[in-house]
Every structure is written in C-alpha cells, then in structure tokens.
C-alpha cells in the first residue's frame, strides 16, 4: 500500500533540495522568522488553491488546512527557527548570515538543529498529500511553528487563538504528529511510546554580595565564592538525591561576575539548565535547586536572598501509546530494518506537545537520521560515534539525501496510517481520541 502511494504521488525532490538549501543559507532567529514564514506561505499557495492558509499566528506561525471529506483530523508540525551559532560546516550553501536578536545584539545565525529539514519535509509531504487526495479522507493541518528554540512558539500560537473558532479557527486535531532530524544513520527512523524527550527548566539566578577592593576581601561578601559552592553542591542532586535508575541532568552553563581581577563584584549570575524525564522528579529537582541556592546564600551571609528568573521551560514530550504503536507498525512495514524502537528518552527537549495538551489530544513525535551511512558505519566500527557533530554544533550538517527523502516518507506514511479510506485498509482504529 505505502509503496504504491509513494511511488505514485511523491513529488520530485530536486525542487525541495533547492528550498532546503535556500532555508539553510538564510536562517532566522526565534521570533524574527518573517522571511522564512513568507517562503513557507508562498510555496503553500503555489501548491493548491484548496489549502486554507493562515499566517502570523503567535508571531510568524503558519497553518495550511487541507479538508478532504469525512474522517479524522491530524496536525503535522514543523518548526523553523534557527540558532545564534556561527556555521563551520564548509557546505557550499552554509550560512554566513548575521542578524540582531530580540535584544538588539548582532549574532551569527545557523540552522544548527535541522529545522530547515523539518520545514522542507513537511512542504513536500503537503504536496504528496494533495496529489493523493483519492487515497485518504479527513482533514490535515500543516502547521509551521516559530520560536521552538525559546520554548515559546507552540504556546504563543495556542495563546494567540490557534484553535479559537472566532480567530484562527484551526480545526482541533484528533492527534498531533511531528518529527526531528537527529545525528543518527541517514535513512533511519526511531520511535518510542511514553516519554520521548525530557522536560527542561532553565533559570537565571542572581546572587547578591558586597563589592570591595580585591586586596580587602574582609570588607566584601564575595558572590563568586558563593556561586562556586552552589555549582559544586548542585552536582549532588543527581548523584545523591535522584535514584540511580532515574534520568536527570543539572547543568550550570554560565557564571558571570565582575569585569576585572582586582575588584570583588557585588553580584554573580548563574544560568542553570535542568532536564528530567518524569513529572515527580522534575518537581523534586526544582525544589532541590532552589533549596541549595538559598542555603548557600545564607551560609555566605548574602545581604539579600537570591532572585530566580525562569528563562525557558519545555514540557515532557510524551508519546501516546496507541498512536505510537500505529506509527511503529507502519514504519516497520515501510522502513524495515531501518526503523528502531528507541529504548530510552532523549535528554533534549521540545514544545510540540503543547499543541496537543492544550486541547487534550494525544501527541506522537519521532526521530529520523541525517548522518551519511558510510560515515556512520565507519565510526560505529571504530568506536568514534561520539565524535559526530550533533544538533546545536556549528558543524552539524545532515547529508541532504536520503535525509530529506526519509523525512518526507515518514510524514507521508503517518498521514496514510491515520487517514486512509476504509477501502484502503486503515491501520488505526482507536476507541476514541
């Protein structure tokens, strides 16, 4: 079934390779993705006049609604923001772009997380679905989301009335589906029921001391020393509070204090990132972080308590078991040995599930690989897989093919899994989602 549909309807991908290269060479930072959104809208309008296209949702968000008779409604999501990273891949279409971020600071910009693959795959999948309208029945929402890297884009679209019938009037989906390119063998896909990706909580913590001359520390309350104790003590959360069979990470990614060596500064700023894979331990770890910071400030005689500012938050990405099992069955049929069921959650984080949880619907998210097969196999044989450039690296450069083809096929197979007409042997028959 999948073979016939894909052979018949999958478009030639050379035009999409060109779109990918254009996106990769012209990345835009979160909340500033106007040109990217315009490119997406323009291509969608060229595909069909039957698409209901709505723009500027929660910033630069775009949706295209394809109604094709009775049946379920599925929402397919791709994110499209980039990162403040200077690209070092050496690709002929590498980004050399710089732009001012939302704070007005000039930054290099790169698609270092593969969101350009997500956009291109979904655009090609949209064309495939439009051509194959005689093979499925229902409604598809193609959703293109900004600001994933800030963890705000999905919530911003929902809060801006994505599902509000009086505003953007996006049909409430029966399920939300999405995918992410990863540093895995190209051509492969990975699925997992339950927790697929971790929750993430990030904070800026300000520690207050008392400034003085570097030669007179007895007149100071040194925030650098206090911050140093905090950093060391935070490491005991995962090693001494979290059970050994539970997964969690607490990282202090930045310490900032003072400008010169002979002045004890009046304050220090820590930036802390927390990853967890269960809601119970997420809350307990957050409480432990705050307890330790406050206790060390008290021990160090800080003139006032620390200030916590939340900078980012991502929910757990939890794959609905029933939806995931249907996806796994289809992926195993189509990708064969190149489909694997992932045994453990990934410690990166995503906000895609907000598009589902906000309307009490199930979500399913999967990974597809982007590392050239020969390189992967050689590194696997010589034990150097850990040297492969990963997402957010300035060297992250998924091979163009078969990565793009895999992304398009995975989305197409997912569409046909849930929307095939009864005459085409629908695989998925849930009780009620």
From TrEMBL:
Q: Does the keyword Manganese apply?
A: yes
Q: What is this protein called?
A: Peptidase M20 dimerisation domain-containing protein
Q: Please list the cofactors this protein needs.
A: Mn(2+)
Keywords, comma-separated and alphabetical: Hydrolase, Manganese, Metal-binding
Q: Which organism is it from?
A: Endocarpon pusillum (strain Z07020 / HMAS-L-300199)
* A GO term, aspect molecular function: metal ion binding
The entry marks the following residues as binding Mn(2+), namely: 113, 115, 149, 180, 392
Report the domain of life of the source organism. Answer: Eukaryota
Can the keyword Manganese be found in this entry's annotation? yes
This entry's comment on the bound cofactor is:
The Mn(2+) ion enhances activity.
């Amino acid at each position: 079934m999948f073979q016939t549909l894909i052979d018949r309807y999958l478009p030639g991908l050379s035009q999409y390779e060109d779109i990918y290269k254009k996106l990769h060479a012209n990345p835009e930072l979160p909340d500033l993705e106007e040109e990217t959104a315009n490119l997406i809208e323009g291509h969608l309008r060229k595909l069909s006049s039957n698409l209901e296209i709505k723009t500027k949702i929660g910033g630069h968000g775009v949706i295209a609604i394809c109604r094709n008779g009775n049946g379920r409604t599925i929402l397919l999501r791709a994110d499209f923001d980039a990162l403040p990273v200077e690209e070092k891949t050496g690709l002929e279409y590498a980004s050399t772009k710089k732009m001012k971020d939302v704070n007005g600071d000039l930054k290099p910009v790169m698609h270092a997380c593969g969101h350009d693959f997500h956009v291109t795959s979904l655009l090609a999948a949209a064309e495939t679905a439009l051509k194959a309208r005689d093979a499925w029945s229902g409604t598809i929402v193609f959703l293109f989301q900004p600001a994933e890297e800030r963890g705000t884009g999905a919530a911003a679209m929902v809060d801006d009335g994505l599902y509000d019938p009086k505003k953007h009037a996006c049909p409430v989906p029966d399920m939300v589906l999405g995918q992410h390119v990863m540093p895995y063998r190209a051509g492969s896909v990975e699925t997992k029921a339950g927790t697929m990706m971790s929750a993430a909580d990030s904070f800026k913590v300000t520690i207050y001391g008392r400034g003085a001359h570097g030669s007179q520390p007895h007149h100071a309350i040194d925030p650098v020393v206090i911050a140093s104790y905090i950093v060391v003590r935070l490491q005991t959360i995962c090693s001494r509070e979290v059970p050994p069979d539970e997964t969690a990470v607490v990282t202090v990614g930045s310490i900032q204090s003072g400008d010169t060596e002979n002045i004890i500064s009046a304050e220090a700023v820590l930036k802390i990132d927390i990853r967890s894979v269960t809601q119970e331990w997420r809350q307990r770890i957050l409480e432990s972080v705050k307890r330790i910071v406050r206790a060390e400030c008290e021990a160090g005689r800080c003139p006032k308590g620390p200030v916590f500012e939340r900078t980012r938050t991502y929910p757990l990405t939890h794959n609905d078991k029933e939806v995931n099992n249907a996806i796994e069955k289809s992926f195993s049929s189509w990708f064969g040995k190149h489909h694997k069921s992932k045994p453990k959650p990934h410690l990166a984080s995503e906000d895609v599930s907000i598009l589902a949880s906000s309307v009490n619907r199930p979500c399913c998210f999967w990974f597809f690989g982007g590392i050239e097969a020969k390189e992967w196999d050689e590194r696997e044989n010589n034990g150097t897989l850990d040297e492969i450039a990963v997402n957010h690296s300035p060297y992250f450069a998924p091979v163009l093919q078969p990565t793009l083809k895999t992304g398009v096929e995975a989305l197409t197979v997912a569409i046909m899994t849930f929307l095939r007409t009864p005459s085409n042997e629908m695989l998925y028959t849930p009780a009620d989602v």
